[in-house]
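Q: Trace token order:
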Amino acid sequence: MKLDNFALQPQTNEWLNELPAELKEDALVGQRRAVNALNNALRQQGTYSNIYALFPTGLLKRDILDSYFNDNHWEFTQWYDWIYLANPTDPLRPLCVNLPSGSADAAIKAIWGFLQRPLDQRDEAYKAIIEQFDTHKLRDYMQQIRDKKAEEIQGESLASVLVGHEHPAPYYYCDRVTEERLFGHIGVQSIEGTVSSELHLIEAGLLHKANGGVLAIEVAQLLENIKLWKRLKDVIEGGEFEWPRQSPDSGAAFFYRPESVPVSIKIVLLGSRNEYAQLREYDEDFDHFFPFLADFHGHYATQNEPVAPYFNYLQYVWQLADVLPLSTDGYSALLRVCARYTDYQQELTLNTVSLLQLLREANDCALQNQHAKIDKAAIDLALQQQRDREGNLAELSRRSILEQQVRIDTHGTAVGQLNGLTVVTMGGSEFGEPSRITATIHYGDGDIIDIERKSDLSGNIHTKGVMILSAYLANQFARHEPLSVSATVVFEQSYYEVDGDSASLGELCCLISALAEQPVKQSLAITGAVDQFGNVQSIGAVNEKIEGYYALCAHRGLNGEQGVIIPQSNKHQLNLNDEIVEAVKNGQFHVYTVEHVEEALELLTEIPIKTLFQHVRDRTLDSSDNDQPRSFWRRIFS
């Protein structure tokens, strides 16, 4: 099928019709699945109901969590202040006491005042403290010191606040994961050669600060030290935090053991899918402790959702970028870029970082041209600047073709030769370029020799693709009698490993051209994978491949015959630049889609497929009815 220019880009004008009159920032657009998982998890209490939040590249985790927890909270959140009080019976075992949120300083002051009172004047103060700061642990502590004098309690200080919660956060975020940052630390001091610890040297970690609420932890850094993971798991499973013992060489500090802290917390691990898979494989208990998967998307599917909410996401990115407002055609250009980033016409990216970078660069372009808004010209210029920065290798590669150092024909016809569309990834750059595929035949027993594989330049997937096209040829032409010829196929002037199966359609067409001795057009480049029945299957990087071939043809001069053949299944991934769209509109360049190898062969040869296949049979089948030499065994037994 020959595509018109309207099929080569997403129809952004239809999306613009859904632009709301009023916009509000929303970082959670398109994340319904993940939000539902978080909602379900936050309605659960207990050890076995924590969350793994899976984030693709480009999403700002902190912004998403801020947006979610502004309106949601763990249903079992219960904030307490936590203090350590001197143990009246053992100065090396300070006691951990919880208090109502925001009352730590007042409670310590009240307890100190209580101890200053004579023993026979404490009853009212005792009752007042119990009534004002009523927790089980406080009542236990007050019972222990009820008949104690202040001087009987050993230590440098009476109390130290571990965590005070006058204004607790909706959630706590541990991005730089270290042992001290996550679990806290007990410091030591040296006085006259004696190393010891004291209440004021106990420092809280984020685990203590988030105790009673939600703690989000970056899993990548957590896994760099597997001991941290095991320790976190012990806290979750045991429901309490126990301070680690000092090393034996730390003197008296070795014997300092503060009471453990009861922990009730909801843990959210933040990471990638690879890290999620690693944890599930490494720890057989991981699924028990983290049964809820909040899978955040990188794409917004317009097939399933209205486009209007997406503009609220763009408003969030725009506010974050702090740039000029967008004009109508600026919105249109931005939406096209959003679709290009996803590789699908009907999907829009949620990659905040990429859009943030683009808007800021487009803003600079608009300011340089003294424009009051970011328009299409500013966005196009920003994109062009990005391509220029990354395009050095692509230009060098194209120049080698233009100077005939690498031979690529873009006009005329040839037997057993055509242009395959490939994508090159090198040095951090990715670009499309054509590659000349050739095939030759010789007398043999039907084998197809892949020179790339023989020279150890073929990846596993490419080798599989060649085997599949060999199966197609055997199924099509050698069901009942063997082929009397063998063939070789190769990517000419290719000096690096070839992998992927996207060239198998081109290799198959090239082989059939050689087998039939029928020329194919050099003006058409081709890409696609095939199965054993000749059906054409989708490939990746279709836009880059087309743009790479078009750039070469444009440098040589468009003659109205050049074009590309791609799989029909890749049609909805097309998002080509304006220059190609205009060339297609004017009939200077063509984009064809095919579903079967036979359609591609008819485009390349302009010969009916039955006639072409008959040429192959006449030249290759080991039959006494044709002029080809018969095989050794046929000559003996006929």
